[in-house]
Amino acid sequence: MNTRAKPVSRGFGTPELIFLLSVGVLVVVVAFPMLLIFFNAFWVDSHFNVADVLRVLQREETYQALLNSLILSGGVTVTGTIVGTFFAWLVTRTDLPFKATMKLLFLVPFMLPAFIGALAWKMLLSPRAGYINRLFIDVLGFDGPLFDIYSYAGIILVETMYLFPFVFIQVSGALERMDPTLEESARISGADLFTITRKITIPLVLPSIVSGALLIMLYSMAHFGTVAVLGVEIGVYNIPVLIYEKIHQSAGSFDSIRTATVLATVLVITAALILWAQNRVLAKGKYQIIAGKSFRPTELKLRGLRVPLLILCVAYIALTIVLPTATIFLVGGLKTYGLPFDLENMTWANYNHILFEWDLTRDSIWNSITLGLAAALITMFAGVIISYVIVKMKVRGKGFLEFLGMLPFSVPGSVIALGVILAWSGKFGINLYNTVWIILVAYIARYMAFSLKANSAALEQVHDSLVEAARAAGASMAQALRDVVVPLVRPGMIAAFFLIFLPALRELTVSVLLYGPTTRTIGVAIYTLNEDGETVYSAALAGIALVIIVVGEILIKRLVTGKSGA
Amino acid sequence: MASIEIRKVSKRYGGRSILSGLSLALEDGECFTLLGPSGCGKTVLLRLIAGFEAPDAGSILIGDEAVADAASGRMAPPDKRGLGMVFQDYAVWPHMTVFANVAYPLRLAGVEAGELRSRTMRCVEMVGLAGLDRRLPSQLSGGQQQRVALARALVSEPRILLLDEPLNNLDANLREEMRFEIKALQQKTGVTILYVTHDQEIALGIADRLAVMDEHGELRQIGAPEEVYEHPADDFVFRFLGIANFLPFRREGGVLYAGDSREAWRGPPPGRDGESLTAGFRPSDVMLSRDGGDGLPGIVRRASFLGAQFDYLIEIAGVLVRAALPSHECVARGLLFAEGDACRVELASVQWFAGHIAAAKNM
């Protein structure tokens, strides 16, 4: 019991040091690039200039990009919300057979990258070469294609298939948690099922529907892949695609960079508005009716519609998941694109070539995996430390830290990429352009919010008294962290790791703006191969990407449910 | 096994003073209870002793060692203070089994495996959790978790045991049982216990000595339970140790009159001077008789039968007081009053306080 005493920390101590380090990391990685975008957009010839910004916005191409973004994301939001709400209701409130399985299957589109889906649909429904259209013209004698995927409707349909789970998850969760006595008491008061649905159920789940819809809109607004694959043929482009073209085609000219920053600013403002609206809806929707507990809601008897609706669900899943996935693998195995799917036309050579022979694709797989791993590891550990400051430490200004960390959550990928280009292309002494490091920095900025969310949630479960109990039991601070905090936070850390690693594996929006000759990622490689007309290789690589993603998703489920079982 | 001395300790939180210049000494091997309303700073005092907070002024000694001294900036970390602590919210580690939880302090101390096992198991048995040692906390009830926390605090045979409302979440029977358990344990091991609670019944039952703290963090009285109960220093202490009746009196020409009435006090004279006094008494001190007997006249305003006793609310000279009479006595002596009945009130035991003190609002 002797002389282990240390001075009472006042003023500057370890907490303040960690705090400043955290702020420093977030400022360099997140805030600085963001500020550069606004600076470049509004600061012309060394003075603040709004008129010029308006002039850029009035140009035909920028105006068209804004309009397209609005039409496309608006359309996807409407269709995605209808589809998501309908299926959510079907799997929670009716006696549909195999509900649990169906519910899992409806979440599968979340795993599949939308641009790979777009690629598959292009192979199936492009007006002249698409397999389905050819079937209808050549075999069934149609005059023209059944459906032209190169259209607004085509883009909206494809995005809907991959984005509707946003609404599905929110609404099915709300329907499951809603206290059934609310509906039962309406029933006792004499309301029929239609009235109850209209007057009780829908108003109660409306906040969830709206918030899911806004997520779809946010995502679609910032989405690059589908529009780039399906729209460019017919001259339809949205803001992210135009940013990409500005950066790529005019090789860093001042005017194109400025146009890109103005577009990025519009994107950021729109995203901020959407998130603000979502917060308001969610705050309003908290009428504590939807309790945390799980109840057993009353189920609607479908009677004669049971089987037809089941068939509808199965057909939907077959059409949106099985068909595109199978197409990808089959086209990937064709000797030449356009041949019919006969056994004699199939070969393993494409897969072999891509995996073992061709440097470009081998590098892209290697790049994606190492980038994903590095980004996930760095972001996971940084996220734990920053979350620890935010949740557990008593330092001033940690609200600022939280704001900085959550900022990228609302910032679209193309904006982050643009900010990173502005910051790390040598203007400020460090030139990472065309190296893999610039992609890594961008990934870290983009995924930091995921890590902070997962880790903060885990840390909030670790009540202070658990650590204090360890200290009282004779543990030093380091021992208490090792024996109590880390084991309890580990599930959150693992979740954060995979929440970053898996999306990073299939990332396209950010990497496509940042890649250099030797730093293609899987997403970029698939995209550029397709652009260059190497459709079968593009499909084969996409198939390999799908295998990696699905295996990863399964591993994560195993790990997370296995470890946090306690 | 160790004394605790708190010397003029002050603590502030964000501009609000919680404790100011508090001094208190616990003797080696005693069970000391700190009793006070919630939010009075008793938990803060516990945390200061444990080392989770540093005093703004003053010093704390455990044994002969100054573990915290604001003047010199000395501050021994919690793990070097040789204490066991039970937290209000149990703080049982959810990822460890009962055995691992209880064994943890021994593991840190580097106790050899065989001994670790036998000491842990003995402790688990002592708190009545034999056979549950492989369970995870999520598989235990709140009361069982609390006993895990108690076993964990005791296993390393600390010099000092700090208990923060450790019996709060137990049901009445278990609470009583654990109270005896803690007391027996303390007599066996001689550990110094500081027990913090707002429950006067537990405090009185368990303590060798107790202190009553008011909402401003000031100690109102320190003493043996019987002493504090029988001779409360002031009306705060009196009020805090049980249901309190207050009946104001005024002195006119050497005679005490109840309230603003002309009814005179005929009991033993108070040992106090002053123009205005207040009589404090417990419901069980009230002796009732039918109208026409001796004592102050009163009217029964509410009568409730609670099984073992009758509970009456009686108005005396415009003041409401509560009376509790054993049911058998009421029946034997014909004291079954109805609302509105007149009665006479005598008091078996009275604490006299200076000035007029208002009674609690909800009687």
How does this structure look, described?
The complex is a heterodimer of chains A (566) and B (363). Chain A is an all-alpha fold and 566 residues long. Chain A folds into 2 domains: 15-48 and 333-566, MetI-like (MetI-like fold, Orthogonal Bundle); 59-324, MetI-like fold (Orthogonal Bundle), CATH 1.10.3720.10. Chain A contains 24 helices and 2 strands. Chain A has a two-stranded antiparallel ribbon with strand order 1-2. In chain A, α3 (60-93) runs antiparallel to α4 (99-105). The two termini of chain A are 37 Å apart. Chain B has 2 domains: 4-239, P-loop containing nucleotide triphosphate hydrolases (Rossmann fold, 3-Layer(aba) Sandwich), CATH 3.40.50; 244-354, OB fold (Dihydrolipoamide Acetyltransferase, E2P) (Beta Barrel). Chain B has helices spanning 42-50, 98-108, 113-126, 142-154, 172-189, 200-206, 225-230, 235-240, 327-332, and strands spanning 4-13, 16-26, 31-35, 57-62, 65-69, 74-75, 83-86, 160-164, 192-197, 209-213, 219-223, 245-252, 255-258, 276-281, 286-290, 296-305, 309-316, 319-326, 342-347, 351-354. In chain B, β5 (65-69) and β6 (74-75) form a beta hairpin. In chain B, α2 crosses α3, α2 (98-108) runs parallel beside α4 and α3 packs across α4 (142-154). The mean pLDDT of chain B is 87.
Short description:
The complex is a heterodimer of chains A (about 575) and B (about 375). By secondary structure, chain A is mostly helical.
Question: Which key phrases capture this entry?
Answer:
heterodimer, A: 566 residues, mainly alpha, MetI-like fold, 2 domains, 24 helices, disordered N terminus, B: 363 residues, Rossmann fold, five-stranded antiparallel beta sheet, 9 helices, 34% strand, globular
